[in-house]
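Journal club prep — side note

Before the paper discussion, L.F. wants everyone to see what a predicted structure for a comparable chain looks like in token form. Sequence:
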Amino acid sequence: MLPSSPRHSFSDSLMEENIEIVKALIAMQHFLISQTTSVEKLIRAQNLMQSVMKCLEKEFYQILSANREYLDVETVSNQSSKASTRTSVSDQDSESKDESVDHISWVAMFDLKSIVDCMIASEYSKECVRIYNIIRKSIFNESLYLLDIEKMTLSQVQKMDWNILETKIKNWLTQLGLRT
């Protein structure tokens, strides 16, 4: 759910305006395609559609990249647990900053949803999923790196000394907060 009275910055307003323009262009292209019998015009309309979708893909990627901390389950989990444990007055400044960050993330999520809706309506859902997977994979790989988990095959794990493997597992659990 979006906040009831979001404060829109210039860039937020510009983004919303651009999304509306793209929606109108797509609707116009769908109309032109249904009304046009000329092959050249159909090709031009398709090329224009592809150009618009490339712009949307780029914007989708940039917004996801800029807001990747909200896609990381571990980070989101830590943020919600911090919010639920705040009780002191000295945390008011921190809460104010968190509210500002929450507002930014809601605006970003609204923009992402608008782009996804537009791409899906234009039958570009595969491209949308591909970009999302790229970002999620990089977040996952970064998490593995931070845990000092290296890529290993099953045979490599099976050949590893049990004591070394057990030490690594204990270290991962400690880093995840699952073991003290």
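L.F.'s comment for the group: The radius of gyration is 23 Å. Keep this in mind when we get to the figures.
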